[in-house]
Amino acid sequence: MPGIYVYSDKMKQAAALIGLAAQSGKEVCCITMDSNQAQELKQYGPDRIIILNGNSPLPENYAESIAQLIKKEQGELFLVASTVRGRELAAKTAGYLDCGMVSDAESLVFEDKRIISSRLMYGGSVVQKAVISQLAVVTVPAGNLEAVQKENAQVSIVSLEVQADPRVRLIETLAVKKDKIDLAAAEKVVCVGMGLDKQEDIKMAEELAQVLGAEIACTRGIAEERQWLPVESYIGISGAKIKPSLYISMGVSGQVQHVVGIRDSKIIAAVDSNEKAPIFRAADYSIIGDMYEIIPLLIEELKNA
Amino acid sequence: MSRIIACYKWVADEADLKINPDMSVDLSKAKGKISDYDKNAIEAAVQMAKITGDEAVTLTYGSKKAKLSLKDALSRGPSEGFWVNSEKAEQADGAASSKALAAAIDKIGDYKLIICAEGASDTFARQVGPSVAARLGIPCVSSAIKLELCENELKISRKLEDGIEIVAAQLPAVVCILPEINRPPIPGLKSVLDAGKKTTREYKIEELGLLESDLSARTETIDFKAYVMNRKNIVLDGETAADKVKALVGSLKKEGII
Ligand SMILES: Cc1cc2nc3c(=O)[nH]c(=O)nc-3n(C[C@H](O)[C@H](O)[C@H](O)COP(=O)(O)OP(=O)(O)OC[C@H]3O[C@@H](n4cnc5c(N)ncnc54)[C@H](O)[C@@H]3O)c2cc1C
Ligand SMILES: Nc1ncnc2c1ncn2[C@@H]1O[C@H](COP(=O)(O)O)[C@@H](O)[C@H]1O
Hints:
The structure holds 2 protein chains of 2 kinds.
Chain A (H helix, E strand, L loop, with lengths): L3 E4 L3 H12 L5 E5 L2 H7 L6 E6 L9 H10 L4 E5 L2 H14 L2 E3 L4 E4 L4 E7 L4 E7 L3 E5 L15 E6 L6 E8 L12 E5 L9 H11 L2 E4 L1 H6 L20 E5 L5 H4 L7 E6 L12 E4 L2 H14 L1
Helix pairs in contact in A: 3-4, 5-8
Chain B lengths: L2 E5 L2 E3 L5 E2 L5 E2 L5 E3 L3 H15 L2 E8 L6 H6 L5 E6 L8 H15 L2 E7 L10 H9 L3 E11 L2 E8 L2 E8 L2 E5 L11 H7 L3 E5 L16 E7 L7 E2 L5 H14 L4
Parallel strand pairs in B: 1-6, 1-8, 6-7, 7-13, 8-12, 9-12
Antiparallel strand pairs in B: 2-5, 3-4, 9-10, 10-11
Helix pairs in contact in B: 3-4
The complex binds flavin-adenine dinucleotide and adenosine monophosphate.
Flavin-adenine dinucleotide sits at the interface of chains A and B.
């Protein structure tokens, strides 16, 4: 039966995608590999839920089965939430289906016979709009989408025996201790960049954050390369997107891949020693100067304010 | 000895984009570069080949502009550079690129491992690697931060949102690496000179058994415009650092932020 297929390895995002797909007015079929999740997802009212029964704990190993299912049922669209697993599964499925794929669609407009998608290119400098008019796979950053429950929905649930790809097997999972940081909800954010000389100088940023009542964030390099702050702390195209009333940066050059994550801030203030730093083009208020001189003065000034 | 193939894309440097008054984007003046994280992919291939005794090679799908990339790529250590040369690459989407790359990998043959980066600097679509794997019918592991060869399996640490996962993949396979996997050195003068002596191989798409129409984008771009950012762009002036700081605090107060 033609329609939209949705999948996410994260329950909340799967629920949100069901709602997004329903906007099309087409039949919505939710795919899962877990019968408990199927029961959970029922309340969001997809038309159908298909449980894929295979013998791999890795969802990515079901890409070929999903492609076969969509081909057989002549599906029109496969919507997947942009998580690490979701992106891989989606791109593999697109490869098996030999169809087009739009990654990380910021918006999807369902028209009669086509879908208009938009996504960012060149790190966020450019918005690309594209028309999807045949079978395609689309990934959507669904982390902030709300799921809507549907009362008394008639949901058909079926199980399908499938062969998961056995060639990648799970050896072990090491959960990383998560500091609960929710930058997306932060009211104020102090952001440190690679201009910071030493790890212990983060204290200076923390002090500023404390007087402002702000959360600490950073650029990708501080989290991934230097590992001075947890990875949840970095902002940008591959990190968190924030919308605080104030974002203030120190030693952040402001490359577009970072700036794309701060664009929804109400006020952007930046301190950087390089007057040509692109962050100044993205900022409301800029101070050109050495942060080791500016930030301590700022902390004092704010304390007295 | 088999091949470890690093895929890299020759992209326009986003720092050189020019925005026209009507917000259209001018790429004509932009210099080309090897996509940032693809340098990590090349380095990962070189490192792995050292351990396994295999041969690290590079592969790119690009227009004639990409010719410039071959020496740059080879100066990073691989022994041979493959280039699928077609003007179609200028308008490629992930479907077309993965199709061209898979066909080339098939042609190159005798491969043990294909290494792509997480995402290219221009598209950052994070789709070409897994799609190549599906088209070749081989396994894929994305988000890799560590690779270890054990017998005929590759042990891979991958970074997920909430932890690290360790998986084993049968070879041949595609892995998509995150930049944290290594720090690619800047090639020295000797490496650059040596690169000039290495073999490069150019394929036309017909040699790969593909038609022009196979490499058309599946999604039609209808708009390609600069993102508009309206900010106050006020640089706070003052004789001393303290004056600038006072001006900032004053502005934030006026905004009602503090
Ligand atoms: C595909 C892709 C995805 C990416 N995704 C992200 C992402 O999600 N998030 C992200 O952040 N980055 C991302 N990046 C990386 C991004 O392009 C930049 O490299 C990165 O944001 C730069 O970080 P930075 O500003 O901390 O460091 P730098 O660019 O090194 O800037 C450091 C700044 O500190 C200033 N400075 C130095 N000393 C001082 C001082 N004493 N006082 C004041 N200023 C000082 C310098 O003038 C400079 O402007 C991505 C890149 C690619 C290619
Ligand atoms: N035209 C190309 N030539 C060679 N490799 C490519 C090409 N396009 C994409 N890749 C590889 O696939 C990765 C992901 O690209 P993308 O899916 O576009 O973000 C890149 O980092 C490269 O390793």
